[in-house]
Amino acid sequence: MSDSRGAAFDRRWAWYWGIWGLLGLYMASWDWALYPSSSPLRLLALNLLQNGTWGLLGLFLVWLANRRPIESFAWREWRTWGLHLLASVLVAALGLFLAYVISILFNLSEWKGPLDLAKAAKGLPRFYRAYFHTNLLFMWALVAAFHGLRIYRRYKAREVEAARLEARFAEAQNLALRMQLQPHFLFNTLHSISALIHADPDAADSMISRLGDFLRMTLEAPPDQLVPLRKELAFIESYLAIERIRFQDRLSVRVEIAQELLEAKVPSFILQPLVENALKHGLSDRPRGVLTLRAKRDSDLLVLEVQDDGEGFVADREGVGLSNVRARLGLLYKGGHCIDILGMAGHGTLVALRLPLGPDAGGA
Asked: Could you tell me the sign of the dihedral formed by the alpha carbons of 304, 310, 314, 319, in that order?
């Protein structure tokens, strides 16, 4: 971080002296247009030295603006405005005096005999009348540029802080939605255990053991909003290990996912409510059922599909799980995603999530 700050510091100074150098070049071209018989190199050296002197004096205005910045246009700021106005007038006056001295020293060869201070002093008012307002405008522009840069930096800092707060808020909302799923899932699982505990105690015991493994995986998972698809699949496999006990041999699971997509980033715990819906609403009452999980690439989108061959989707039967998925994807992708639900009575349901594909997803 110190290196980046040092580089930014160096860039600011390069801009500062570069602008004064350009002003010197501009004024040298102005003088050459007025005095074409003069040496261009001599005029350039004279103007660069004069503008360099003004740049050195301008550092005082920068220091003053840093110590006593102008915060607003309100009347209560009149003392600060007056201070900067007075300082700029004094710096412009001193700068012109030094520029005049430099000009005389550059033109000593044109004086016949020794330097006549009285004669030199007579030219000073004319020099002030010709250049004072221009030099004062330079100093005002310097003060204005400093305050403009200060306002811009404060605006960017507030913008970054606002983005950080928005990200934290979205993360908190996302975490709250994730936590909302856990009691919903636990209720359903405990209900299944309750139904098995008398009919098949061994199956109920096995389900409790698998539930413990599942909850351990949930608690040990990092609070990342996005995880590799392979981690999401491992979580789903742990969840299906519980459900297979309840379904026994009535459930078949197919996974159709290309190897190169396993590192694609997906929202954590996003598939579980979709799989749970497929099992609960599509396959729970059927003698046999097939659950299919797919992932494929469609241009710059990752398409995740959960499909069952059960009863078919009922439009007004959107529960906690699906509404939770919609809310989380809205927080994470800000409308850059799509959810498609296709279903026909007696022919199953297909839920497809189309998510922006990150650069580390792999595949072609």
From this structure: negative
